Amino acid sequence: MSRNTLDGQELTHKIGRSFLLFKVPILLVIALLLMLVWEIIRVNLEPAARNSGVWQLVLLDRSSAASLLAVAVGLTFARAQYARAVRPLIGWSAEAQRNDRGMNGRHIWYVEMQNGGTHGVAVDEVSYRLRHRQGWGGEWVNHQTMVQGLERLNLEIGKDFDLNTIGQGAVLGNCYVGRFSEPATKLLEDFEIRVRVTDAAGDRHERTLHCLRGAETELRSAAARQ
Which one has a higher pLDDT value, 57 or 15? Predict the structure, then answer.
């Protein structure tokens, strides 16, 4: 199974954007703090020492450094608060449903993904990984490769499983993930989805969802209630 990777230009762009959003404000605060400390130490030296050697260097006077530091700290904390407010809360839910669409077995395992945050997020990348009862799998792959991998396990699309395509740039709210038949849940130990998103503050987040947890038990329970 081939890996689902970002191309070089896209990866470079994301790293550059991450640096601007996270590193630059912190580095600015640190630089201004160092300038202020330097100036405080410098003005408390003896005049002879202050006017000789490296201590002659004046980066910013105390009042300017203190004012800029206060502004930088305020902006950094404001951004941190905004980032916290728009941070996504990505999770999943699933339930055993009656089989009414031709899936193999009496019930199916219906999986959805949700963003419980207050703001929408844009999908950067979605990849999949499964674990067979005998340990097969383990690599993160894209949608098409995962479908092919499931078919190599003699699972038939539309009969044993159905996997929704979630494209890059999609806004993540409540999203249908897929359906799995009873034989599929017995064959697979776990089916994971890794979703990477960008929120309204420009921060990137990653979540891994284990979509078959509880599936076998819930399907047995649904069959017993029938």
Answer: 57
Q: Radius of gyration of the chain from Cα atoms?
A: 27
- Structure tokens given for 196: 């990477």
Segment (H or E) for 48: helix 47-50
Please give the span between the terminal C-alpha atoms of the chain, in angstroms, as a whole number: 39
- Determine the distance from the C-alpha atom of residue 167 to the mean position of all C-alpha atoms in its chain, rounded to a whole number: 15
**Angle formed at CA 169 by CA 90 and CA 139, multiple of 5 degrees:** 65
Sign of the Cα torsion 4, 144, 179, 150 reads negative
- When the pLDDT of each residue in the chain is averaged and rounded to a whole number, the result is 80
Mean pLDDT of 41-64: 74
**Cα(13)–Cα(178) distance, rounded to whole angstroms?**
31
